[in-house]
């Protein structure tokens, strides 16, 4: 399997597949522990893009188009069975942009989309970009987000390693804005953090614009990084969705994908 795709426990006979897209500066390690809590009817695959974890010394992508172009060469073969896309923060928008490209090319689509801790893709990040700020100012922004441990921020050597990735991911996050008209018929779930000061309920509702079915919006404890603070509550929500999909998908539909 490609180094882009982390599959902690291969389950080739699983009825469903879950593909997870990490937040800015994040990596597959956010998702791999989930396999212990998820239904055995699902196979988990987490995206590991260049510039992080085992790929730390590879050049990270800083443009959404380039990142999604690469994913388009990797993801379609994984859609041979019913698949859920789950993205957190920037990962939600990467997953969404990928889904629009899949639809535009007439390729298979996920059967459920989960946007987590993210504004809708039509909303611009902010008026003032931060990815090009001097190191001190940029790191102050990171500290405000509360997603980078203070011990890491204060470690000069570590930050020298991580800053290129963080700047690249922030450039994608702060410059991407979806302007197409493609919409989807699959169910949509949206997760938000109760104490998330960056993503409001209005931001979460913004996803509804692109999906025909009413969004199921769930607010969980925690701030923007509730996915790290309360993983058991996130996987509980994912397991509910898995259960609903398995109940609704007729056996012939599952075998058609298999």
Automatic annotation (TrEMBL):
InterPro entries: AB_hydrolase_fold (IPR029058), TEII (IPR012223), Thioesterase (IPR001031). It comes from the Bacteria. Pfam families: Thioesterase. GO terms for biological process: lipid biosynthetic process. Residues 17-240 form the Thioesterase domain. Belongs to the thioesterase family. This is Thioesterase. The lineage of its organism: Bacteria, Pseudomonadati, Pseudomonadota, Gammaproteobacteria, Alteromonadales.
């Amino acid at each position: 399997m490609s180094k882009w795709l982390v599959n902690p426990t291969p389950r080739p006979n699983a009825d469903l597949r879950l593909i997870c897209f990490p937040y800015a500066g994040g990596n597959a390690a956010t998702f791999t522990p989930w396999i212990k809590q998820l239904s055995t009817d699902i196979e988990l695959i987490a995206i590991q893009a260049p510039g992080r974890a085992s790929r730390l010394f590879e050049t990270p992508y800083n443009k959404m188009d380039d990142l999604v172009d690469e994913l388009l060469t990797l993801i379609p073969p994984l859609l041979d069975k019913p698949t859920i896309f789950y993205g957190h923060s920037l990962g939600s928008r990467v997953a969404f942009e990928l889904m629009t490209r899949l639809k535009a090319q007439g390729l298979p689509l996920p059967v459920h989309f989960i946007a987590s801790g993210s504004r809708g893709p039509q909303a611009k990040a902010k008026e003032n970009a931060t990815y090009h700020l001097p190191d001190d100012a940029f790191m102050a922004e990171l500290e405000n987000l509360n997603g980078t441990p203070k011990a890491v921020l204060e470690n000069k050597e570590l930050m020298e390693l991580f800053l290129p990735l963080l700047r690249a991911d922030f450039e994608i996050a702060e410059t991407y804005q979806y302007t197409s008209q493609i919409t989807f018929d699959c169910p949509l779930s949206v997760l938000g953090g109760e104490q998330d000061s960056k993503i409001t309920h209005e931001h979460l509702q913004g996803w509804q614009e692109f999906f025909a079915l009413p969004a199921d919006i769930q607010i969980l404890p925690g701030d923007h990084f509730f996915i790290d603070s309360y993983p058991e509550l996130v996987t509980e929500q994912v397991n509910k969705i898995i259960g609903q999909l398995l109940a609704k998908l007729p056996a012939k539909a599952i075998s058609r994908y298999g």
